[in-house]
Automatic annotation (TrEMBL):
Residues 165-247, 309-435, 533-692 form the Plastocyanin-like domain. The keyword Oxidoreductase applies. This is Plastocyanin-like domain-containing protein. SUPFAM superfamilies: Cupredoxins (SSF49503). It holds the Pfam family Cu-oxidase_2. Belongs to the multicopper oxidase family. GO terms for cellular component: plasma membrane. Keywords: Copper, Membrane, Metal-binding, Oxidoreductase, Signal, Transmembrane, Transmembrane helix. One of its GO terms (molecular function) is copper ion binding. The chain crosses the membrane at residues 743-763.
């Protein structure tokens, strides 16, 4: 292994390529246009130019530079320039087929402004709501902003009054053989549910060679991300940061003060392969059929499954470490560097884009002040580390309070045991570097947690972190700055139990929600709500629970109702065997209040020993419900309106999470596990808010797709007079106009005048019957 000091030379070329948060469009009053091209790409390959052309593999030299291998004779050609090196996706140093936006890993950051408030509204927000003296914890950071913001406010007053900027993303599918769609994870797409990018639900898939333009208002503000919403594309690299800057001045990014940090595992296998291995219980061979060692699943601190397939690599901002064995070591390959200056404050916007593994993020020598999750601001909470699951986001503030030097930023897996033996977690690294000096490998070490000074870890998927002097704080314990008034005690709360678990389909295990595996309809219901050609298998044909049943699982919710979902992951099989792992569940189109986390039971060593006693599983009906029936129908007392708002919730194995939300965003919204191979297999459903007449009408020029079954009548149309394609109203108008022309020749001027008036009235009334504008949800 090469010494890390040498390798850090290469980090220089990459360090500031894309990790600082900066708006794509300076002017928030204009639509912000971004172009994304999704294509295959190879890591550790130098493309002569982005639009393909020649490509040559590269290797790493001992001095940290990349060298080009000539493709004709496989000889070393030359060392790449820094500029050329910056265009090579190094990932974990292996050559791997990837699916990337604009050839970059992660994809290019998209940073836009929140839908604009008027100046008057912003002014009130500053003076009343966010006066520096009232902001706890982050006072220095925010108050600097306030002082600096006065001039800016006057400028913005002139510039931004009454604007509604729009984001326009033009996506081209340059994959040769796969369709795709683009989801902005965290945006609500209020009034534009057809722009949500859930392929097959909110839109037709974008086929190879096609282009699809997404137009929407960016809301809510915060740290979000974009990713492909089809097949395995996300875990092959099809993701990138998406930040919506809050349109008051406190959060305006300042150069060098905010960073994107995207962490993800980087697996050898696509999730389809993992589905098949897990489903057939062949996973023990997943090291490769030719290799001797069989794999046994690693366990987390509570003794339950952590990694069902081997951890191979992990990346921070597309750069990281490859493991050949289960032991951790220092990075061999370029890693991300975040440059800071003593005395300043920094905001890290952290997103987990993993296929499967969660990560515990920490920075040697520094504590993290968590200030937001899933885009939503929370009261600052000081922690040693934060656990982040696929789909989640955490923003933390960090004070650069060291005099100088470099410190490891660590992303550790939650693996703790294998074959009953204690193991070290797999760790990938980035570097927090002070000042402008040379890049050197940190010599820092992880904080030592002691009984006197225990470490606080946010968002563990288990209640305790035994024997390491660690205190786990659940995400539900975070608190909003001010209570959300919309979700108080309501006289009527709709309650649904959703069990994310595995069920037997003949002799194989499959992921499900309440025993149902999601089968997509043949055309997206958001585009074709009344498509009589649409193939859907109604879940009414399924029995709840015990036996796997594939169907188009849709939960219908009345617009305006207050909804409580109990998201559980409890045992289902009659033998009482617990199988499963923590799931990160993502709800599209909404932020929900996480009002309660229910844990399973543990022994005095902290190991799992039983399902939560709060929930009953009825083996006869396959339903789950509260054990205490007096909690039913939303009566469970969770009356704390300051519970945090999230869109991706981690459900502990054998436990549950209660979320509450106001169903005020009409549309067909996808809900699914963000472990990609669980989602691919069917741990997904649609929750439909409002009826079709309450949803904005999908624009008529949306692309078409779906089952085709041309009738004889429509076939006849193909050979008929082209004029027959005209709608009745238009035809009527044209006929009338033809008569009018005849009349012009034969009638007197006064008769022509009278007839024209008549025609205009007739045409106008016909046009009024047609599609003229998008009705708003208030209508
Ligand atoms: Cu899952």
């Amino acid at each position: 292994m090469t010494h890390p000091c040498l390798l850090l030379l290469i980090g220089v070329a990459f360090a500031f390529r894309s990790n600082e948060v900066a708006p794509n469009c300076e002017d928030a009053t204009e639509p912000c246009e971004v172009t994304l091209e999704l294509g295959f790409s190879l890591t550790m390959v130098h493309y002569e130019q982005r639009e393909r052309g020649g490509a040559s593999p590269v290797n790493l030299r001992p001095d940290g530079k990349l060298r080009l291998i000539r493709h004709d004779d496989c000889q070393v050609d030359r060392t790449l320039t820094d500029e050329e090196m910056s265009r090579v996706v190094t990932a974990d140093g292996r050559h791997k087929l990837s699916i990337l936006y604009n050839g970059s890993l992660p994809g290019p950051p998209i940073v836009v402004y929140e839908n604009q408030e008027t100046y008057e509204q912003m002014s009130v927000a500053i003076t009343k709501k966010h006066a520096p003296a009232k902001v706890e914890g982050l006072k220095p950071w925010y108050s600097n902003e306030i002082h600096g913001a006065r001039k800016q406010r006057r400028r913005l007053e002139r510039k931004y009054r009454k604007t509604k900027p729009e984001v326009v993303i033009t996506l081209t599918n340059a994959l040769e053989d796969e369709s795709t769609s683009l989801h902005i994870h965290g945006l609500h797409q209020r009034n534009t549910p057809w722009m949500d990018g859930a392929g097959g639900t909110s839109q037709c898939l974008v086929n190879p060679g096609e282009t699809f333009t997404y137009r929407f208002i960016a809301n809510p503000p915060g740290t979000h991300w974009y990713h492909a919403h089809h097949g395995n594309q996300r875990s092959m690299g099809a993701y990138g940061p998406f930040v919506v800057i809050q349109q008051n001045f406190m959060q305006k990014p300042i150069a060098n003060t905010e960073f994107h940090l995207m962490v993800s595992d980087w697996m050898d296998s696509p999730s389809d392969r993992i589905v098949e291995l897990v489903r057939r219980e062949a996973v023990s061979y997943s090291y490769g059929f030719d290799n001797a060692p069989c794999y046994t699943s690693t366990k987390q601190a509570d003794g339950l499954d952590c990694g069902v397939t081997p951890f191979t690599s992990a990346l921070i901002n597309g750069k990281g470490v490859h493991y050949n064995t289960g032991t951790s070591n220092f990075p061999d390959w370029p890693i991300e560097i975040f440059k800071v200056y003593t005395g300043s404050q920094y905001r890290f916007r952290v997103t987990c884009a993993s296929m499967t593994y969660a990560f515990r993020i920490s920075v040697d020598g520094h504590s993290l002040r968590v200030v937001a999750t899933d885009g939503g601001e929370v009261l600052p909470r000081e922690v040693e580390s934060v656990v982040i699951f696929a789909g989640e986001r955490y923003d933390f503030a960090l004070t650069a309070d060291a005099a100088s030097g470099s410190f490891w930023i660590r992303a550790e897996s939650l693996e703790r045991y294998q074959n009953q033996k204690r193991i070290e977690p797999h760790t990938t690294y980035a570097i927090l570097k002070y000042g402008d000096g040379a890049d050197v490998a940190p010599t820092s070490s992880k904080r030592n947690c002691t009984a006197e000074n225990p470490c606080t870890v946010l968002n563990c998927p288990y209640r305790h972190h035994p024997d390491v002097h660690t205190v786990c704080v659940p995400a539900a314990d975070l608190r909003l700055h001010s209570a959300d008034p919309t979700l108080g005690r309501h006289s009527k709360i709709r309650e649904d139990f959703l069990n994310f678990h595995y069920v037997l389909d003949h002799d194989t295990w499959k992921t499900s929600i309440n025993g149902k595996g999601f089968q997509a309809p043949s055309s997206p219901p958001q585009v074709y709500p009344n498509d009589d050609q649409q193939a859907m298998k109604p879940c009414s044909e399924c029995e709840d629970g015990n036996i796997y049943c594939g169907c188009t699982h849709i939960l219908e919710i009345d617009l305006g109702s207050v909804v409580q979902f109990v998201l559980a992951t409890t045992v289902n099989n009659p033998a009482g065997v617990l199988n499963g792992n923590a799931h990160g569940i993502h709800m599209h189109g909404h932020q929900v209040q996480v009002v309660r986390i229910g844990w399973p039971t543990y022994d005095d060593q902290g190991f799992y020993n039983g399902l939560t006693p709060d929930i009953m599983y009825d083996h006869h009906t396959g339903h789950i419900r509260w054990t205490n029936m007096s909690w039913s129908d939303g009566a469970l007392d969770v009356l704390d309106n300051s519970a945090p708002l999230k869109d991706t919730m981690v459900i502990p194995v054998g436990g549950y999470v209660v979320v509450r939300f106001l169903a005020d965003n009409p549309g067909y919204w996808f809900m699914h596990c963000h472990t990609e191979f669980h989602n691919v297999e069917g741990m997904a459903m649609i929750f439909k808010v409002g009826n079709d007449s309450q949803m904005n009408r999908t624009p008529q020029n949306m692309r078409t797709c779906g089952n085709q079954n041309p009738s004889s009548v429509s076939l006849g149309l193909l050979t008929a007079d082209p004029s027959i394609e005209m709608t009745e109203d238009v035809t009527d108008c044209r006929d009338t106009l033809r008569i009018l022309r005849t009349a012009t020749m034969s009638l007197a001027a006064i008769a022509l005048f009278l007839l024209s008036v008549n025609v205009i009235i007739v045409c106008q009334s016909s046009a009024d019957k047609g599609y003229t504008s998008i009705p708003t949800s208030e209508e």
